[in-house]
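All the exercises in this workshop are built on plain-text protein records. Sequence and backbone structure share a record, each on its own labelled line. The question running through the whole workshop is how a given chain folds. The record below serves as our worked example for the rest of this section.
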Amino acid sequence: MKKLHLSIRTRFCRWLLCLVTLFGLWTTQAMAQNVNVSGANAGNGSYATLQAAFAAINVAANNGSGPIAVSLVNSTTETSTAVLDNFTWASVTVTATVPVTVQGTITGAIIKLNGADNVTIDGRIGGSGRNITVQNNSTAAATAAIWLASVVAGNGATNNTIRNLELACGVTQNTASFDLWCDYEWYNYQYYF
C-alpha cells in the first residue's frame, strides 16, 4: 500500500511540475510580445517592456546600424526607466500598432534619452491620432514622463522628435514634476503634442 501511495504522489508531482512549466512558458511568451525591435545589428526580437527593448538596443554592436524600428504592440508597465543611450545608429523610431500606454511608478522618468540622437517617438498610427500615452504614476518630486538628458555638457540628446503623445505625471506640475524634461542641450528638438 505504501508503494502505491508514493507512485500516486510521484505522478501528481510530475503532473504539477509539467503544468507549472507550461504555465511559465505561456506567460513568458505572452509577456514578451509587448515591444518588437527590428533593423538593429543586435537585439532584434520581442520584449515584455520598453526598458528591456532599449537595453537590448544599447549595445556597442549597434554602432552604425539602423534605422532601428521599435514597435509597441501592447501596453507596458515599466519597473525601471527605459534608457536609450548615446550610440551612432542611423535612427531609432518608436511607434505603436494599436493605442498603448507605457506607464510605471518611477522616481525619475519612464523614458530617458541619455544623450541619444536621431530618435523619433511618434504616437500616430496611419498618420493621425495620439496613440501612445507615457504616464509616470510616481508622486515624488522631480519625476518625468520623458527626459531628454545630456551625458555631459556639450553631449546632449539631439535631432530628436517627440510627436503626438499623451504625457502624464502623478504630481501637479508646480511641485517639480515634468511631463517632458530636458537638460543641458536645447537644440534640434521637435515637439508636437
